[in-house]
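Journal club side-thread
Mid-discussion, someone asked how the predicted structure for our own chain would compare to the paper's figures. Pasting it here so we can look after the session.
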Amino acid sequence: LEAREETAPGHRLAADAMTTLTNRHADRAAAHIAAMVDTAMAGTDRGVPGSGYAVARLFADLPLTCQGLTIIRVTAKQAAYLMSWLGADGAAKAAKAAAKAAGANGAGFCAAAAEELDAMGFAADNEKAGTGAAGKSGRGAAASLLAAMAKDDADAASRTLAALDSSLAAAALSQLGPRAAADLASGVSDPTVGAALLEQMPVEKRAAMMVRMEPAAAAAAAGAMHPEAAAEAMEAVQASGGDSGGGEAAKRLGAMVSQMDPFAAAQACSAMSKEAAAAMTASLPPDRAGAIIASGGIPAEDAGSMLDALPLDAADKVMAALPPDVADKAAAHVTSDEIRERAAARAVVHLPSSTLEGDGAERCVAGVEASFRLQSANPGGGRIGRGGAIISCVMHALEPAGAHGAELDDADDDTAGESSATKMSTRKRLGFPFPIDARCEDLGDGTYEFYYELQRAGEYQCSLQTAGHEHCFYVLCVPCALDPNSCTVEEPASVDGWTAGTPLEVRVNCHDMFGNPIKPPGPGAHDPSASPLVIVADGEGPGMVEAEVVADESDPDATWQIARFRATECGEYELRVFATETQRQWWGGMPRNNLPGAPLRLTLTPAPADPARSRVKLGGLKERPGGMLVGMAGREASVTVTAVDKYDNPAEFGDLKLRVDAMGPADVTFRKESDDGSSCRFFGSPERSGSYTLRVTLAGRAVAGFPRNLQVVAARTDPTRCVVRGDALEGIRVGETAKASVVAHDAFGNSCLEGGDQVMVRLLGPAGSVDADVVDYGDGTYGLSFSVPRAGTWRAHLAVNGGENPDPVAEFVASQGVLAANQVALRIVHAQSGDDDFTPRGNLRNLSQGAVSQAPRAGTETIVHVQVLDHDVSGREVSGAEPVCLRMLSPSGVSANVPLRLAKDGARFHARVRWPEVGRHVLVASINGDAVVGSPSHVDVVAADVHLPSCVVTGPGASGCVAGERTRFVVEARDSRGNRLCAGGASLSLRVQTPGSEPTRGSVLDQGDGTYAASYAVDKAGPYVLVLSAGAGGSRLALEGTCAPGATDVTRCVVDASGLAQLTAGSRGVVKIVRRDKFGNAVEAGPDVLPFRVEATGVGPVSVETVESGDGGCEIRFEAKAAGRYALHAWSGYKRDAVAGSPFDVVVLPGQASASSCVAQLVGTTHAVGGPGVVAAVAGETLSVRMQARDRFGNATAWKRWQTLSVAASGPQDVVFKERLEDTGADTDGGVRQLSDASASGRGVFSAVLHRAGAYVVWCTVGGQAVVGWPRVIQVVPNTAAADASEWRAEAETMALTSEIASNAPFDRTGGLATRDTRRGAIGEAARARAEADSLRARLAKYEEAAAVVMEAAEATGITLKQHARAAAMAKEARIREVGDVVVSDDVGDGATGGGASEAFDARATRQLGIRELTAEEENDWTAGTPRQRGGRRSGGAMTRAPDADRL
């Protein structure tokens, strides 16, 4: 389908096919469309421009019914994509068709598609396949679709709007024009949906929508809306119309509120401000305002406030419309005394008991003020004699009735009036136009007079309301007099449908001055009292116009008239319709202004073509006297028919069927070639001659002047259709005169009845051609006479007037009689032996003298012919029945019969005569014993030529040779019988054929004694064939031989040095050499083959040798263990001729790394300790092992990526060295890592750190094998002491400290011992250290207890860990202070004991260790389970940290 869419014809075919498929199988058609849409959507996602054009163009040309059946069967997204390419108008038509096809679900489908369409938008104008812009600037796709749908089907658009999501629907309405949006919203049937749409809009837009919507629809939506939303919109309407003083918007708002449910309207008023509610109530009719207050939706207090805000008269009217009980409650909350007084003094009138008087209570005239009176009465029917009641009167227009005209006619009839009133009571009120308030005048005596004026004709309901009850009656408003300015002239439905002679009816609508339809004046319109004006019509144009204005007979009660116009001459006409005075209507009246819609300017078109008036023009036919038409067979005749209507206007055929045919020997229907609507041209060519009836019919009726007689005569003679007749067709005799006749026909097989043609007949047969004599008989036949010289089939070819028939028109079979001996001759010709095609070479003997002109050789054959005497001149043949006999007499006296047979062409007898011996031979031919002409004939036979297969060949060259050397052999000549020929003269040639080469020529030398010396040379070794030939057509001899190769040529030898590529140390390379001679022939092995010599130079020793392969080839084997570059020389012969490519450049690469040759170095150790092979290292320092790759011959090489290298140490701890790449610095885990070829060159460096002191054994391996010189022993010694890693054991270290203090007492620097005082000071230091150790031990126990308490507290609460720990520690400290746990000497801490000693120790320890107290912020950040550490102080530029700071 997409391929079809590329061309216009293909598009038409695709559209027709899809239409047919949709009508038969809508599901299949939808599947095709869906597949095309999916493909187009994928193209759009990839950014392909115009992806959806093909499918949209195809879909747009489908009928709307097919569009609907197809689109409802695809998904909403596919439908939206399709609509996006159709444009707004095309999408609207498709949506309308979908809604119609889907039925009840149509609105939902259209809404789903519109939502998808709004998301994707319409395609660009230059890409879409449909019509209609995507929308105005800023308008969404959904809004454009709804606007386009509203033009064709407003109901479908409203249903789609109702099914949309409320937010999207509100947004779409916001983008439309106010009028269009209001019309769509008014069409929503569900009030709740309309309310949801309006609530989604801003307040200003909602207010504008409610004002422009139909009052009934707006009232229903407002009633279903939230009261506050409705109140906001109403206030917005009042605010916008405040400046205009209650304009159109306020009126429409009042009409809307009047039709709302009173309770819903009351709730909306409650949500409004008091001023706004009062203003709206004042704009309502008193009865509607009273109904709103009486509904109970407004509290009595608010109702009183509302009445207070109203003007006094308005409030008084509303109070009068309230029921008495509601009015009393409202009056109780009214602050105005006057309102209460009026309410108390107001008389209560019972409307049903009151009576109405006056014509205005039943009927009125539009535009004329009418009045009626109300005689008030109480509920008992008693007359009320005083006034004071407030009675409101509102006129409500009713919806039109079906029998509106009947009600107008029967308005004066009382019975009909009652029937009409009954009908009126069943109809609904119209919301627009707005209700009309009648003016009430209180006459003060209980009588109330009402005045009103209506302009719209029709039925009205008059509602009288007072004191909460209502009384309704009905009034009929009739239109006033006819007003020409309000009348309208409708344009005809089809302006192109006015044809000559056909009346044109134009509808004239009659209205009064207010636009009310009025019944036009009838036949009695001449009565001036009926109507002062009447409607008349006339026209002007190329011809006369008949015009009249009549009533519509189909509807007697019609409010319009029909203006009829009729004309017969085509052209432009102006038709006028106007009103004039009644008394002047009979003579056309006085011209006045045309009615609105007139004048009409129309074109009168011709009537249908009339056969009696249409004209015919003939072509290609001749007319003879008497009206006979004559035509020639096969000649095309034309018939042109011009359409004319019955009024002689040029017309068009239209749908009328026009036919031209000729009835006769072969009926002919003329074909239509051109048709411009008004003229049709037909062509036809009768092919059979004879009489015809030519007919021209239009719509089945004969055109004027037809049918006519037509005589068709034969055309020009055609040689291909002529025939030959006569007895000669059965058979003729050779040499006898034969007769026949030719009958002439034209190309269509019609017999020609006249002569005069130039006829020529030629016969072609075995003896050539023969021209016949032709005689013209003048009646279309021609006589023939001819004779043929030879038997056989003769074909007659005919030419007429220079035109030839390529095929023969007849065949004549000529037969031959039996010949006599004097008519036959003997002819001898020469032919090669075994040749079947007898090629005459001339007579072997002059037959008149009996001598042979050329002697044949013995053993050869000669062709002998027995033929007609003049065969060579006339080509005459023998019959084949002649009794011919041929005998041969040899020189030895032997007589033999020679068999004769007919030649292939059957013209003569022939025989093959083989000459058996040398000498004169005699040939005798006879018929019935009589010798034929030329018999007997003498032939002399000579010896035969050289016969090579019988010859003897000698010499070495007959069986073999050496390549490039010339050899020879000798041929001894013999004949076919083996006899040696002793004389030369034979023409011998020699050709040498070798396989795959062109043959070459050898040399043959005639030695003159019957022997021939031949020589030749061959370059290609192998078998060959020698071919000896004896002249052209002579014998041949083939000899087979074998050519041996020549001596070896070093420069032509073939060398294969590919075995020297990619050599590694220790591997063997091979160079293969194949020996060749100077012609490129392979030389086989032999004792005389020259050997090859080799020599190699390079970076190291080389092993090189040559090995013969036994087939003439040689191998040079090369092997080196040192990596590097070498030169290999190869030559042969004493001249040291180098082979091709010598010297050869050989590169030897190092081999794979081998553990037995690799080298490993240890870095990071010191001199050996403890014995040979043992080195020392310091704990914690990095040790490195650097491995160098070597192959098995010691060549430096590179590590392969698949080779496994490892270094490991075993001892106090097992350590695996990590490998790092020198180029990237990357380490490997476990010492083993798979590397790429690019990174393998940086391998071999391993490092590790040994932390534990002791002896280690270090292994260095390659592929699991130890490197030579490994493993090695490393002695790891401790590193310098580290405070963080040192441990303090309380007992032992304290005693050691004491011993050290005691033993290391300070000495005098002069060399003497210390004094007693210094010794005493040392002892004091030891005692102080011991006391500090005890104190620390006690605090450690205290901290452990505190930790247990903290854990207990954490398990208890889990949140106040710091507080619990601190509280527990303080409690424990208090207990310790009470008991006193440590007592120290006076020398320690100035006599401090117990807790004081601990606190003194803490302070001193804190200063010495650099521990500070936590800040408040750090304490707050310390949470349960989080270790905190006190910060250290900086000393000497470095941060010192106590060794046991974490524990503290």
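Post-session note: The longest helix spans residues 1316-1356.
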